[in-house]
Amino acid sequence: MFTFFIQPLGLASLLLLSVLLLGACSEQQPSIKQLPLPAVEQHSTVPDFSIHPVVADKKKAFFDFLRPLVIYENTQILNDRYFVEYSQQQLTNKSTLTKKERARLDKIAKRYKVKKDFNSADYWRLLLLRVDVIPASLALSQAALESGWGGSRFAKEGNNLALLRFSEVI
User: What is the pTM for the complete model shown?
Assistant: First the structure.
C-alpha cells in the first residue's frame, strides 16, 4: 500500500517530500517570543472621577482609565515569562545564555524574589509560577476597592491606585 503511494510521485517529488520532512523534523534554535507593548497615554496624576455624578459613568471612566495600564503591565509580564521559558529551554538543551540574557534573567528573578539557581527545577518552577499575568478583571476590581473608585486620599494626593504609584507605572 505504501509503494502504491510512492510510485505515482516520481523520483523528483519523492526527493522534495523527503527534504520537506527532514526540515520539519530537524531541531530549530528556539526564539524569544515577544509581544509589542501597547501604546499607553502617559498620566502624571489620577483623573478626578468625582466629576461624574452618575455612579455608572464614574465606574466606566475609572475602568477606561485603568484598563490600558493593566494591559500594558500584563504585556510586560508576559514578555518576561516568555523570556524565562526561552532561558529555561536554552539551558535545558545545554545551550548558553549571553551575558545580556543572563543579566535580564537575574533582574527578573530578583524582581520576583526568586533565589538564582539555574540548575534547580524548583528555581524554574517557582519563577514561572510568579512571573504570570494578573487577570485584568482582578486588577481592576482590586484597584476600585483599594482606591474607592479613585476617590481616596491616596489616589488623589499620592497618585496611588491599588498600591501602585503612577510615577512607577510608566
Answer: 0.71
